[in-house]
Specification:
Blueprint (H helix, E strand, L loop, with lengths): L1 H19 L5 H12 L66 E8 L2 E8 L2 E5 L4 E2 L4 E6 L3 E9 L5 E9 L5
Antiparallel strand pairs: 1-2, 2-3, 4-5, 5-6, 6-7
Length: about 180
């Protein structure tokens, strides 16, 4: 215990001796003289910044460069029919407000009421049955089996008529 007190007192005395000695502060004094010699109130002006110019992307309505171009053969193009048309008076279902491309089939369910398909998309997993509508082009579900959902869409032909376009959603296997 005495040795510890002696070591602490020796360290304390050497520390106090270092504080009390007069040192050479000529470099500090020179710096202070230089700072005091500077003119008062001289502040550098702020740098000039270039104003932000907003950029509007104008190619969003064009075809994606990552998809192959669609070749339309005018001679062999299907003509629409006046008999085929969507039912505008029908109340739209929730899944009709999304593109059919966002949906993927993830499974099926079967019970006493029939066979249902599970589709993932539009913020969750939804249960659909034959006769339900899916997608923005009046897509009506025609058939459901273990691996696919058969859908027929009614799309405009561009000349005032309507075409029925078959689509299918395949079961997405686990990846």
């Amino acid at each position: 215990m005495k040795i510890l007190r002696l070591a602490v007192s020796v360290c304390l005395l050497s520390f106090l001796q270092g504080c009390g000695s007069e040192g050479n502060f000529s470099d500090l004094q020179a710096f202070m003289d230089e700072v005091r010699a500077r003119p008062k109130g001289a502040i550098e002006p702020l740098p000039t910044f270039q104003p932000y110019e907003a950029f509007t992307y104008g190619a969003s309505s064009l075809r994606s460069p990552f998809q192959p171009p669609v070749k339309i053969d005018v001679v062999r193009r299907q003509k629409g029919s006046q008999e085929i048309k969507p039912d505008e008076a029908r109340v739209k279902q929730f899944l009709e407000s999304f593109n059919i491309e966002v949906f993927e089939m993830v499974g099926t369910l079967a019970n006493a009421n029939g066979v249902f398909a599970l589709v993932n998309g539009a913020g969750g997993v939804h249960r659909v049955k034959v006769g339900d509508y899916l997608g923005r082009n009046y897509g009506r579900i025609l058939a459901i089996d273990e691996a696919t959902i058969e859908v027929v869409e009614i799309v405009p032909d561009g000349e005032g008529g309507w075409l029925e376009r078959p689509r299918s959603l395949s079961l997405k296997e686990r990846s």
